[in-house]
Each structure stands twice: as structure tokens, then as C-alpha cells.
Amino acid sequence: DGGITQSPKYLFRKEGQNVTLSCEQNLNHDAMYWYRQDPGQGLRLIYYSQIVNDFQKGDIAEGYSVSREKKESFPLTVTSAQKNPTAFYLCASTLDTEAFFGQGTRLTVV
Amino acid sequence: DQQVKQNSPSLSVQEGRISILNCDYTNSMFDYFLWYKKYPAEGPTFLISISSIKDKNEDGRFTVFLNKSAKHLSLHIVPSQPGDSAVYFCAASDNSGGSNYKLTFGKGTLLTVNP
């Protein structure tokens, strides 16, 4: 079964700690994306990568970092510099004019 | 500056009636539009899309209408069912047909279909 897998589904971290969210796809898609959802804010683009070893900042990249060492994987690190990290994070990949999304990770910083 | 706007945060309709969800955009470079449905704590799932060369696209109970001159699109669900209750996101792209592009999303509309 092809798809995008995000793990874990729920994640709790202490304030000031870095945390990495996993995103893996076996769809052979070139482009991958990270979005963040907050209540009343819709989906906002954090980072995106169109090919391996290359990525660009989205609209709200501050406090986040990514890597794209493999086509299948696009991990997102939420750093201690992110002032309000508690949110729902969605990973996506694209083929033609459709975007395929993972199931999301709910990150709660306590 | 919000380029894709869904001005109704919520909508409530009776089962069997029509649901109409609206979306406005400001970027005239957008040429492909999509609707996604999202349940709580899950990723969005694709519903229906429309290219700017069309003004209507239909798929079963779902129809999307595009008015380019007004920069407005709408999603019609007929008849509405309780299982349609979810958040609906409107999204737009300015690179239709390519495999690498960015989607710009609206804030979403929570649809509740009452039995």
C-alpha cells in the first residue's frame, strides 16, 4: 500500500527541547511539504522540498529545520527557538495536481 | 495577507439538504483549485478539484463551481449526509499540471450535517 506515514501520532515534549517529527512516503514523489494547523489559522506552509538535498522555507519557517537526504523521508525538527510549537503538523507530497497528506502529528509542549 | 479566504468558519445544514461552502481568492495567478475534507486529528483527504479553464466540475454528490471574474469558488454537496460533517479546506495553486507546487489554503469551514 502506497502512502505517507507520519509518526508518532501524539508527541509530548518539555519546553526548550528540540523534537523531530518523522514523515516517510513510498509514493516515489519528488516534492514533500510540512504544514502546521492551528485553530482558526487553516494550514500554513513551514518548509518544502522539491528534490533530494534541496529545500525551501515556507511562510512560517522560523524555529523549524528540515533535511531531505532521501527521497522517501522529510523529517521536521521543531527547535527550542519556535515560540509556540504546540500544534497539529501535517506532512504532504505531491503528484501532478493532487497533494497526499499523512495522518498528522499532534505536538504538545508542556 | 490571506490569499485564499473562507469567510464562514462554520455551517450547519439538515440531512438531505444542500450544503454550499464558499471560497474567495485574491491572487490572479492561481489557476487550479482544490477542496479537501478533514476530520479531527487526521490528514486532509482530497475531494474535488477544478482548473481555471472550467467553470464547473462534478463528482457524485460534490460539485465545484468557479467564477474567475469574481475570484470565487464554491463547493456544493447534494444531498448532505451526516458523514459529511468535517472541516472543508479550499486550496489554490499557481502551477497546475506540474508535480512540484505549493498549495495555499483557506482557514477552513466546519460543516455540521444534522440528522
Please sum up the structure shown.
With 110 residues, chain A is mainly β.
How would you portray this structure in words?
The complex is a heterodimer of chains A (110) and B (115). By secondary structure, chain A is mainly β. Chain A is 0% helix and 55% strand. Chain A has strands at 4-7, 10-13, 19-25, 31-38, 42-51, 54-57, 64-66, 76-78, 87-95, 98-101, 105-109. In chain A, strands 2, 4, 5, 6, 9, 10 and 11 form a seven-stranded mixed beta sheet that branches. In chain A, strands 1-3-8-7 form a four-stranded antiparallel beta sheet, with no helix packed on it. Chain A is globular and about 40 Å long. The mean pLDDT of chain A is 90. Chain B has 115 residues and is mainly beta. Chain B has no helices and eleven strands. Chain B has strands at 4-5, 10-14, 19-25, 32-38, 45-51, 56-59, 62-67, 72-77, 86-93, 104-105, 109-114. In chain B, the strands form two sheets. In chain B, strands 2, 4, 5, 9, 10 and 11 form a six-stranded mixed beta sheet that branches. In chain B, strands 1-3-8-7-6 form a five-stranded antiparallel beta sheet, with no helix packed on it. Chain B is globular and about 40 Å long. The A-B interface holds A 4, 6, 9, 29-31, 33, 35, 40-45, 48, 50, 58, 88, 90, 92, 94-104, 106 and B 6, 9, 32, 34, 36, 41-46, 49, 89, 91, 93, 96-108.
Mean pLDDT value of chain B: 90
| Biggest interface | A-B, 32 and 28 residues
Question: Largest sheet of chain B at a glance?
Answer: 6 strands, mixed
Shape descriptor of chain A reads globular
Quickly list its features:
heterodimer, A: 110 residues, mainly beta, four-stranded antiparallel sheet, 55% strand, B: mainly beta, five-stranded antiparallel sheet, 11 strands, 0% helix
